[in-house]
Specification:
This protein is an alpha+beta fold. The chain has helices spanning 32-45, 68-77, 102-115, 119-151, 166-181; strands at residues 4-10, 14-19, 27-29, 49-54, 60-66. 47% of the residues lie in helices and 16% in strands. A hairpin with a 5-residue loop joins strand 4 and strand 5 (60-66). Helix 3 packs across helix 4 (119-151).
């Protein structure tokens, strides 16, 4: 591949990252691991490249394709059989941008992995299901109020109805018992 970043050891500087077409080093690092990380970042930033790691004696120790170069090479070699997940059909309606709480993002990520879809598609599915559940709750509350109104005619809002106090209820029960115990005339 024409575009590559080489990691070599220079006795005076340490580990250097050099683009294959350049004379000067792109960066200098104290450790080989730091140089490899920097070369990977540069390869990704440049749209993809080979990262070639040389041992201290100059021999090639490792070669890795990073970024777009990896995908292109995999496609050419036939290894790129994994297709990205299919996109969800475009939905109608207004666009919105929002911040998602961490807990919801974790659930959306888990659903996205399970269904092999994007996080946005998973969030859309969760929101749609939540909207359906909300509508069901509203329908249940409406039917409950209608049924209560049928059972107790004239009392529509049971939350604001005045119930007898405990003393009034006790007095009513005692009066009914006394009336039942009284001899019939």
């Amino acid at each position: 591949m024409a575009n590559a970043f080489h990691i070599t050891k220079r006795p005076s500087d340490g580990w250097v990252v050099t683009r294959s077409s350049a004379d000067r080093a792109s960066s200098v690092h104290r450790t080989q691991a730091d140089a490899i990380a920097a070369a990977r970042r540069l390869a990704l930033k440049s749209g993809g490249a080979d990262v070639v790691v040389h041992s201290a004696d100059g021999r090639i120790r490792e070669r890795d394709m990073v970024g777009a170069a990896t995908l292109d090479e995999m496609k050419r070699s036939g290894q790129g059989t994994h297709q990205p997940p299919p996109r969800a059909p475009r939905s109608e309606g207004p666009r919105t941008t929002l911040r998602v709480p961490d807990e919801l993002a974790a659930v959306a990520d888990r659903l996205a992995r399970e269904l092999d879809i994007s996080r946005n598609d998973a969030l859309l599915r969760l929101a749609t299901r939540g909207a359906r559940l909300y509508e069901q709750e509203q329908n249940i509350a409406r039917r409950r109020a209608e049924r209560w109104a049928a059972v107790v005619p004239g009392v529509v809002d049971i939350d604001h109805t005045d119930f007898p106090s405990p003393d009034e209820a006790r007095d009513t029960v005692l009066a009914a018992r006394d009336q039942a115990a009284a001899p019939a005339r």
